[in-house]
């Protein structure tokens, strides 16, 4: 089935290009995202046909092993993307739709990001147990309240800012996590999820507080809220199609974020938070202008955007220790005229964070992670009766 260039198929209607096979995880959210990409492609190429192919991946199958251990070492790459990437490499798929946040910063040799689409809300969101008042925020949660999250970044940042809160693991797709929050005997007072996923699923009415540097002091994950499309490097046909649906502003911002993460050598499970915005342009050189403005309901305010080349990218980044006691933070502002220049900015900000002590924080986390993995392995062996 390998199709490095579009295959021509003979039908009664004449010669036709083969359908574009779109790979996706099989969760509800993943399939909504795949349909959004299909729609964008259909708009640009109405004459092509499209096939959405949902695939069950390892990360969705294994719900027992703690995420941090699952994503150790070589597993880190394959957990959410491995099976789909094999199908892309073999030609069974032509593109894979990913949450950019779940994509490793280093891709397999023959694959690349073909396009990054316009970003949905990049922020994290706080959702409150139905037992608590809807207007509850991080700051007004009761002392000792338990927050459900499996994200080291989210827990570490919140430990730093809200030491009165406690944290417990919470896994599963968005629907499962909401059900666990709402359960009568739920151990959680609140959970934190990406606003983007909730908005895509039409569940944003559940959000009690949108979190950002100016609300709750939370920075989001690298690439959060954006979709990344993976293609084969040598697939010129797909490259051409991708160029019609990419978003330059999002591509530059996320390129800076991903280069920062790559330089700090962090996987998706390390406590690095970022926030990017664009400022200036159109004679608005004074005054910060967020990448998107949001009204009081959390909806993006549409306005004429200035030319991205007239603007400056603001990149803020935070590295925090797991206990929340140590952290380094930095913010840079720069004109970036291409994705490559944005990557350079990301690397430069990473170097400054390292100079400020980020390497020591990350080194300690890696040592602790290896120790925890070793301990877990020993426990498993002891349980199964082998030595
Ligand atoms: N960690 C899992 C994950 N990966 C991407 C999203 C959805 C948001 C996005 O597109 O970035 C989520 C869920 C969440 O963090 O709440």
TrEMBL record:
<protein>
    <recommendedName>
        <fullName>Porphobilinogen deaminase</fullName>
        <ecNumber>2.5.1.61</ecNumber>
    </recommendedName>
</protein>
<dbReference type="InterPro" id="IPR022418">
    <property type="entry name" value="Porphobilinogen_deaminase_C"/>
</dbReference>
<dbReference type="Pfam" id="PF03900">
    <property type="entry name" value="Porphobil_deamC"/>
</dbReference>
<comment type="function">
    <text>Tetrapolymerization of the monopyrrole PBG into the hydroxymethylbilane pre-uroporphyrinogen in several discrete steps.</text>
</comment>
<keyword id="KW-0350">Heme biosynthesis</keyword>
<comment type="pathway">
    <text>Porphyrin-containing compound metabolism; protoporphyrin-IX biosynthesis; coproporphyrinogen-III from 5-aminolevulinate: step 2/4.</text>
</comment>
<feature type="domain" description="Porphobilinogen deaminase C-terminal">
    <location>
        <begin position="252"/>
        <end position="279"/>
    </location>
</feature>
<dbReference type="Pfam" id="PF01379">
    <property type="entry name" value="Porphobil_deam"/>
</dbReference>
<keyword id="KW-0627">Porphyrin biosynthesis</keyword>
<comment type="similarity">
    <text>Belongs to the HMBS family.</text>
</comment>
<keyword id="KW-0808">Transferase</keyword>
<dbReference type="GO" id="GO:0006782">
    <property type="term" value="P:protoporphyrinogen IX biosynthetic process"/>
</dbReference>
<feature type="domain" description="Porphobilinogen deaminase N-terminal">
    <location>
        <begin position="20"/>
        <end position="239"/>
    </location>
</feature>
<dbReference type="InterPro" id="IPR022419">
    <property type="entry name" value="Porphobilin_deaminase_cofac_BS"/>
</dbReference>
<dbReference type="InterPro" id="IPR000860">
    <property type="entry name" value="HemC"/>
</dbReference>
<dbReference type="GO" id="GO:0004418">
    <property type="term" value="F:hydroxymethylbilane synthase activity"/>
</dbReference>
<dbReference type="InterPro" id="IPR036803">
    <property type="entry name" value="Porphobilinogen_deaminase_C_sf"/>
</dbReference>
<dbReference type="InterPro" id="IPR022417">
    <property type="entry name" value="Porphobilin_deaminase_N"/>
</dbReference>
<dbReference type="GO" id="GO:0005737">
    <property type="term" value="C:cytoplasm"/>
</dbReference>
